[in-house]
Amino acid sequence: SFFSKRFRQVWWDVENCQVPKGCDAHKIALNIKSGVEKMKYCGPVTIYAYGDINQMTSSVQQALSSTGVSVTHVPPGVKDGSDKKILVDMLLWAMQNRAPANMMLISGDGDYSYVLHRLRMLGYNVLLVRPENVSCFLIAAADTIWLWRSIVAGASAAEIPKQADTRKRMKSDLVVKSKSRKILCETCNVTCISLVDYNSHLSSKKHQKKVKLCLFSGLLELT
């Protein structure tokens, strides 16, 4: 339907997906919007970037501002500062925009895995732009994935992965990687011995309560 193809929001974790030196931040922001358009989504694309503005050059700040990107300052020294702000804003957005709705996260931080997984299960279409090496569980939480370097370079329509192929590939990667090591839930500091054990833990009341407490503490820190 028209509603299901309308694009809504982009959250950009600048700490995890930085503007490479020598690259034009203005062009990258346009590439993000162009990538959405190439996937046949319609409507305005709202981009929110999160990071320490003191670590951004004035040219980068001006370039982002000129393309309509809203930059939220995250002070240095705040543990998981960007993560908490993005998670809070993401959940507030979800409360105001019922599924089906489309959203994009630009990050490689595995801490977003659980929230993205829950949103996808609720009917939200989750697009993920990621760096090279990230948690396989973050990848598995998204419907469609492509690399940050592709966005930086200006991905063509042919480079954008199709949803079915993405899910099939991620399922295969997840099985292979989960056999080789134990899985740590950093939120609860619990080590799971298998993928089944990990998924069971994510669905547990203990984990969900811990996530809510972390998000609530994040809200308090941001006020």
UniProtKB/TrEMBL annotation:
One of its GO terms (cellular component) is peroxisome. SMART domains: ZnF_U1 (SM00451). GO terms for molecular function: nucleic acid binding; RNA nuclease activity; zinc ion binding. InterPro entries: Marf1, Matrin/U1-like-C_Znf_C2H2, NYN, Znf_C2H2_sf, Znf_C2H2_type. GO terms for biological process: regulation of gene expression. Gene3D superfamilies: 5'-nuclease (3.40.50.1010), Classic Zinc Finger (3.30.160.60). Residues 180-214 form the U1-type domain. This is U1-type domain-containing protein. It comes from Brassica cretica (Mustard).
